[in-house]
Amino acid sequence: SQYSRLLIILTSETWVIYFLNLCLLQSWVQIERVYFSGNAVSWFLCDILFLYVCFPFLYKALSKNFKNKAIYIGLLIFGYIVICFMIPGQYQHHIIYVNPLFRLMDFTLGIVLFKLYSHFYDKKDICLWNPNIAETAILAINVLVILCFAYIPQCLSFDALFIPCGLFTIFVLVYDERHKCGYLLRLLTNKSICYLGSLSMEIYMIQLIVMQWLDTILRKLNMQLNWEFRIIPYILLIIFASYILRWFLLKINKSLHLWNIL
Fold this sequence. Notes:
The chain contains 13 helices and no strands. The protein is mostly helical and 262 residues long. The radius of gyration is 22 Å and the shape is globular. The chain starts with a helix and ends with a helix.
């Protein structure tokens, strides 16, 4: 029957989606129900796998005559922004935000940032560096970006808008840690903040599942809570679930080492 054929097609599509998720290939498919399937944030793992494979080739290419490549890097950034404006609106989210090839852009700039940091690594008196002023500039730039977000073209709001903020923030904080410690870095090196930082990957990977799970329970209990009443349970459950996930992964990692698999 027509219903049976439809059921077979849907089942086949589901298995294909499962296969793509298992192989971390889902973000290559330009269909939202594919790249946001399963644990929706796992598209990040697909991208990062591709970027890690590219890393040794990119690093080697950027290490040769690095100073002479500055103009090419500038042209790459300019070309990236131009292409962003050329992509039709309905495809911008997947291509600019999710597609691994486009995320290769900010990954490459991260490598460039490391090369710049290596250049300044031992220069303690770089421009009479004042960590408090530099860290205040970080906060001001990020707040300005948030305030201007609604007025930025959509194609830039997916990724390009945040690249300079991210690069500048990372450079300042890493440089401060090496040389002089400002007020922001002292706050971020607090033991509690550092512990939460160590759970950041687990928090990112499990947060959506926990929120969906809590929303499902509230619906079954016929409880309707505004977001401001749900935010505390969200945070507590996400941290707890992240701790359990980290413990579980550490156990697996230890077992793999014992079995000489890693």
